[in-house]
Amino acid sequence: MTVAAEQGLMGLALYFALLVLAVRALFRDAGRSPPRIVIAACFAALVLHTWTYADFLEDPMTWTLLGIGLALARQSEPARQAETAIAPKAAAAGAR
Questions:
Q1: Distance between start and end Cα atoms, the chain
Q2: Measuring CA to CA, which of 13, 37, 43, 89 is 20 to 30 A from 54?
Q3: Quick check: is 23 in a domain?
Q4: Which of 4-8, 9-13, 57-61, 88-92 tops mean pLDDT?
């Protein structure tokens, strides 16, 4: 409500876009990494908490959790890419 009152419809749309992108980035494949699960859960709890306490974008914990979560997600990307590159080669070798 505060975002809509202060920023208008455009600010509210950007706020929801930030939330959707952040949640998608933090929760995608987080089940494979306990630290990522913890960061994603903390971020979700912070979002829910700030819906009753209007300080989400100004809370340093928001940006800290988002930064750590994105860094952990990027760190796991090379491993995921290596898994997908190895799987087709192993399947092709097994078919011979």
A1: 62
A2: 37
A3: yes
A4: 9-13
Q: Which amino acid is at 40?
A: A
State the pTM of this model.
0.57
Per the domain annotation, does 93 fall within a domain?
Answer: no
Distance CA 20, CA 82 (A): 28
**Domain assignment of residue 12, given as a range:** 2-88
Query: Domains in the chain: how many in total?
Result: 1
SS3 string, the chain, reads: CHHHHHHHHHHHHHHHHHHHHHHHHHHCCHHHCHHHHHHHHHHHHHHHHHCCCCCCCCCHHHHHHHHHHHHHHHHHHHHHHHHHHHHHHHHHHHHC
Q: Residue 29: which region, alpha, beta or left (left: phi > 0; alpha: psi -120 to 50)? A: left
Residue 96 lies in a domain: no
